[in-house]
Amino acid sequence: MSVLIFEKLKTFLPVFAFFLFLSFSIPIANQNILTEANGQSSPTSTKFTNYDGSKYGISIDYPSNWNITEDNEGVWFVSPVDQTGNIRIQSEPAQNISLAKLVQAQLLISKDSHKEFNIVSSNMTVLDGNPANRTDIEFKDEAPKLLGADIFDYTSFQISAVKGDKLYTFIFFSTPDNFSLFLPIAQKMLSTLKIL
User: Domain check: are 96 and 191 in the same one?
Assistant: First the structure.
């Protein structure tokens, strides 16, 4: 009987050793990628450059190594390595609706789009000198896969302000374990945001 167990272990051990090797080498490889991608060990010490978003009525500084994607209403800034740092800036018609009602509509749409949508806090603030609303949110997103789906947790805040006939919204979200890592970048970007 011990010979039979040994034969099974003999087949299993190389497979186990391979997965053990992968489990230790992937985090090290990811650390190296983060260092190489940023040229530094921390994404918070990244060089910033200006983004001219005049077609959206904004200007903002952003990390020069982040990915940018534009669409009809705004622009995405996404961290280069793991893509868990996400910043969205958009402008849309305010349609003579109050800021409170516009924010309420935004939150209802977001609630319908995400699982377990939870408003943590909501208060008044300022966005480039304009009265604004800041809402802190926790939510889950579902990523379909072949059998079932993966569910990811996110921590987020959005700041919305009306200027003229436009609603401007700054949204930052990340996974809870990376939120504090990318928060200084979001804060720096927010401090450079200009509504034109």
Answer: yes
173 Cβ contact partners less than 8 Å away, ≥ 6 residues apart: 86, 137, 154, 155, 156, 157
pLDDT tens per residue across span 93-122: 999 999 999 999 999 999 998 889 999 999
- Span 118-144, pLDDT tens digits: 999 999 999 999 999 999 999 999 888
Q: Rounded mean pLDDT of 8-13?
A: 38
User: What band does 43 get if pLDDT is binned at 50, 70 and 90?
Assistant: low
Do 108 and 146 have their domain in common? yes
DSSP-derived secondary structure for 48-94: EEEEEEGGGTEEEEEETTSEEEE-SSEEEEE-SSS---EEEEEEEE-
| Together in a domain, 20 and 37 | yes
For residues 94 and 191, membership in a common domain is answered with yes
* Domain range for 165: 45-195
Measured CA to CA, the distance from residue 192 to residue 65 in angstroms comes to 17
- The span from the CA of 147 to the CA of 2, in Å, is 38
